[in-house]
Amino acid sequence: MTGVRFSLNGEAAEVDVEPRELLLDTLRDRLAMTGTHAACEQGACGACTVLIDGNGVRSCLMFTVQVGGSEVRTIEGVGSPGSLHPIQQALSEHHGLQCGFCTPGIVLTALELFETDPHPSRQQIVEWMSGNLCRCTGYINIISALEALAGTAEARS
Amino acid sequence: MKPPRFDYVAAGTVAEAVAALADAEDARVLAGGQSLVPLMNLRLARPSLLVDVNGVAALSGFEVRNGTLRFGAMCRHRFLETDPDVRERAPIVAETAGLIGHVHIRNRGTLGGSIAHADPVAELPALLVALGGQVVASSTAGERTIPAAELFEGPFTTSLEPSELLSAVEIPAHRQGDGGAFSEFVLRHGDFATAGVAVILHRDGSGTCDALRVAGCGLGPTPVDLSAAGEFLLGESALGSGAAEELGSRVAAAAEPTGDVHGSAKYRRELAAVLAADAVRRAWARAGSSDWSGRG
User: Fold this and answer.
1) What is the pTM of this model?
2) Residue among A144, A132, A143, A130 at smallest CA distance from A39
3) Which residue in chain A is spatially nearest to B103 when comparing CA positions?
4) Does B108 contact A57 at a Cβ distance shorter than 8 Å?
């Protein structure tokens, strides 16, 4: 077992893990961050997306021993039920989710998009979001929600 | 969907990494992990030891040495795609890196990892062949260089020894008159390409083509060198009517694709013709432009 310390949504986290433990499983099973969703577990769907030092990654393709010293941000670190992040609010207003399973990954991926480029075009949004699968919405309302936010001051945070 | 047990070494230097590789029976290098970790999750790969080189600073960045661009193996695709220096000095590398996977795959995936993985449908191995580049293999015995033509032996198989770390990738530095393009067909943006063709050419001061190389992905068991198909363009000062299509026909005839669930062999041949024609048109125009930055 290896001790790993990192920052999780701004607070210190410390776990003892085998090298083979995926960051996805550490977040869900040891740290109760169950907003990070487990689906394909082979890097295809984007549901387990988290931000590491601001960069989006698939937590099913990283071992927990690799994130020592990093800042990890999960959906629990974005908005709150009483105070949605503008991206969450926009998705809600545009019906950009139905079952909600893909939504944490969608929100974190969009967060990185707006931090990289506050003024993405619709085509840039489509390309950026293409790694996150959604089986409900048909994507149109997700793209429309993000397009409505593009260029507004609230998109970044 | 969880990997079997393995031992883990986080290397801090190339020397530590190659020492760990030399001592182990069945070790694998962990670079970006975007191909290896899915294989481990599916238990299709079961290494006894992972040597993590993400902390080896010497494997990052790139430098110019005697007309050669030397990239550290851990240059991530996203860095290659967005770094202003790479875009200026190696625009074809930046363009090609931007075609790989989705942005979160590019945030982690690496140049050296993609080449060492040797997926026959991957872009960067084919680009390395088209550029006539080489890789640097490091081990406890020192360094050796392996030209692209001698690197790829079969699907997911290279001439790298198990004890060797692919530590750097070297390509010729961009010269005035160089032009290149990578054209590929994917069903959905970010997916693996069904087929792709890279064309790299040079036009001298009078606009005459004096070098032209072609390579493809998804067109054989390894990235394939199709340069012989383009020899008829050497000495030409213009891409005449029908010339791009002629290259396409010759590339399609020279390629030896196999069929799979993503496309039949015949379909891939037809794609190869269209993609080669598109790539040579773009490469030719770029070679005649004074300010190709990889954005055109």
Assistant:
1) 0.95
2) A132
3) A128
4) yes
CATH 3.30.390.50, domain B179-287, yes or no: yes
Q: Check if the beta carbon of residue B137 is closer than 8 Å to that of residue B164.
A: yes
Domain locations in chain B?
7-52, 67-170, 179-287
Q: Spelled out in words, what is the top-level CATH class assigned to the domain B7-52?
A: alpha beta
- pLDDT for the residue B296: 41
Residue A153's pLDDT is what?
A: 58
Give the homologous superfamily in CATH for domain A2-77: Beta-grasp domain (3.10.20.30)
* Distance linking the first and last C-alpha atoms of chain B: 42
The pLDDT of A6-28, averaged and rounded, is 98
Non-local (6+) Cβ contacts of B185 within 8 A are B193, B194, B195, B196, B271, B274, B275
Please list the pLDDT of chain B residue by residue as tens digits (296 residues): 799 999 999 999 999 999 999 999 899 999 999 999 999 999 999 999 999 999 999 999 999 988 899 999 999 999 999 999 999 999 999 999 999 999 999 999 999 999 999 999 999 999 999 999 999 999 999 999 999 999 999 999 999 999 999 999 999 998 899 999 999 999 888 889 999 999 999 999 999 999 999 999 999 999 999 999 999 999 999 999 999 999 999 999 999 999 998 899 999 999 999 999 999 999 999 998 876 754 44
Q: What is the DSSP annotation of A25-47?
A: HIIIIIS--TTS--SSSSSSS-T
Tell me which CATH code domain A86-155 carries.
1.10.150.120
Provide, as residue numbers in chain A, all residues whose Cβ is less than 8 Å from the Cβ of B107: 55-57
Is the CB of A109 inside 8 Å of chain B's CB atoms? yes
Question: In the 3-class helix/strand/coil scheme, how is A45-63 assigned residue by residue?
Answer: CCCCEEEECCEEEEHHHCE
Using a CB–CB cutoff of 8 Å, tell me whether A130 touches chain B. yes
| Pairwise CB contact (< 8 Å): B5 & A20 | yes
Is B49:B26 a contact under the CB 8 Å cutoff?
yes
A contacts of B50 (beta carbons < 8 Å): 19, 63
Q: Under an 8 A CB cutoff, do B38 and A62 touch?
A: no
**Hey, are the CB atoms on A20 and B105 less than 8 Å from each other?**
no
Query: What are the residues whose beta carbons fall under 8 Å from the beta carbon of B153, sequence distance 6 or more?
Result: B159, B222
From the CA of A95, how many Å to the nearest CA of chain B? Answer: 24
> CB-based contact (8 Å) between A84 and chain B?
no
Fold held by B67-170: 3.30.465
Give pLDDT, residue B160: 98
CB pairs under 8 A between A and B: 79
